[in-house]
Amino acid sequence: MHVGAPSAAAFAPSVYQKPLFRLVAADGSPFPPLPTAVDWDGVARQARLHRLEPLLYAALRDEDCLPSDIEAEWREAYLTTALRNAVALRALDAVVARLADAGIPVIVLKGAALAQTVYGNVALRPMHDLDVLVHPAHAARALQALASLGFRRLWDEPRHGAEAAYESHTSLINSAEMGVILELHWGLIDSPYYQSRLRTDWFWATARPLRAGQSQPLILGASAQILYLCAHLLLHHSGAPDGHLLWLNDIAACVSHDGDAIDWDAILAQAQRDDLVIALQRTLPRIATEFGAPVPPAALTRLAALRPTRAERRIVARLTLAHRPVGQRFWDDLTTFSDWPRRIGFATANLFPSQAYMRWRYGIAHPALTPLYYPYRWWPAGHYAA
After folding, report:
1. Could you give the CA distance from residue 242 to residue 52 in angstroms, rounded to a whole number?
2. Which of 77, 107, 137, 144 is 20 to 30 Å from 170 by CA-CA measure?
């Protein structure tokens, strides 16, 4: 079995009728007996929703228990994932090489890093896109270097320089590489609060090579990986069921894979410094209980005793709302900036974007109609201001 690959799958009662399988057997124990009556159609629906088909296929294909139609569906998902990831990782190699030529260090994030390390088999971990992190000072040069490979922005900026000033990443696409999407990050959390609060020095200082003997690219260190994945799950995806169990399994698999290399004291200290305590409190106990991940009991005890700051509780409450309309997101971000010049710049870029952006964003048929669309754009923001 591949390192980090599932020997079983766990569906929490809130997600499925009852626990059926576990996605991670942290102690490497053999596959447990299946229940005598399995609702395979229900399992298949959940596997589809959470992008678990390749993992479950790898775990169960030799168990002689899968209905033939589900086995065929999961085999196809496994092979499709292998093909798509091979294409994406070939594009990633080109990206890393081009950025290295430009003297730009790179950290590979999320699925592209995990598939090649924790899972040990790129067919097991579906990916929607590639994610790489560069230093903020290198972002503009990185965009120029990537443009020479055929990458272009998925969408226009509201105003020139708005992304660099007020966002943490931009999304690029390369149509020549089967539409591979690359997210270029210069920050780790997409929130103005965390863009100023979360300093990436520790994440860079503890990064490690993706491949032995090669200085580039890097991946996050074992401890930084745990903290980042917990924060990303809570702050970016808490309201989205799609892939939720896969992301939980990512964290559980990292804990199992990296074991003694994880510095739990450093994780807890960094979480307090960066206001990421709640992300750990909502994730680590769950992966220990439901996924069998070997999180040390002493670390869980210390984690439970931590008290998030008032500012962290407030920002987490905002970012984890199940439904956050665009107007509310605008006001949440606007009020999170700590100084008035940045608030004014952010408001100007979003309320008065360029006419070229307006025509792209709203599909305006004739340039003369563009001014009429500005009030339409302002309505959601004005609603939440009121």
Report:
1. 10
2. 77
